Amino acid sequence: MPKGYWVGRVTVTNPDGYKDYVAANAEPLRKYGGRFLVRGGKYETRSGTERQRHVVIEFDSFEQAKACYDSPEYQAAARIRDANGIVDMVIVEGL
């Protein structure tokens, strides 16, 4: 079964408030089996809009990745995220 991935690009606008998002997303990610493959780190923007943080989270399936994102727990965390950053997020089916 193909895995599912969240691919996020983030510009944090309020670092203190963004810490609340990081704390709030821990439980839904654990519940749905999300595993960080990329979280920050060195990068180079080659085209497109620059964002300061990059995240890739792996799930056992595309359906599980969508279920986590759509869960009430993660949606509560996403409201905190959106209040403290600018986020581009996609859910992708992978190999």
Describe the 3D structure:
This protein has 95 residues and is an alpha+beta fold. It has one domain: Alpha-Beta Plaits. 41% of the residues lie in helices and 32% in strands. The chain has 3 helices and 4 strands. It has helices at residues 15-31, 62-70, 72-84; strands at 4-12, 35-39, 53-59, 85-93. Strands 2-3-1-4 form a 4-stranded antiparallel β-sheet. The longest helix is centred in the N-terminal third of the chain and has 17 residues, at 15-31. It is globular. The mean pLDDT is 96.
The rough form would be described as globular
How many domains is the backbone divided into? 1
CATH fold-level assignment: Alpha-Beta Plaits
Assign the structural class, choosing from mainly alpha, mainly beta, alpha/beta, alpha+beta, or little secondary structure.
Answer: alpha+beta
Taking Cα atoms only, what radius of gyration do you get, to the nearest Å? 13 Å
Helix count? 3
**Cα distance spanning the termini:** 8 Å
The number of distinct β-strands equals: 4
Quickly name the level 1 CATH class: Alpha Beta
Query: Order of SSEs, N→C?
Result: EHEEHHE
Secondary structure: elements and pairs:
Blueprint: E1 4-12, H1 15-31, E2 35-39, E3 53-59, H2 62-70, H3 72-84, E4 85-93
Antiparallel strand pairs: 1-3, 1-4, 2-3
Helix pairs in contact: 1-3
Nutshell version of this structure?
The chain has a four-stranded antiparallel beta sheet.
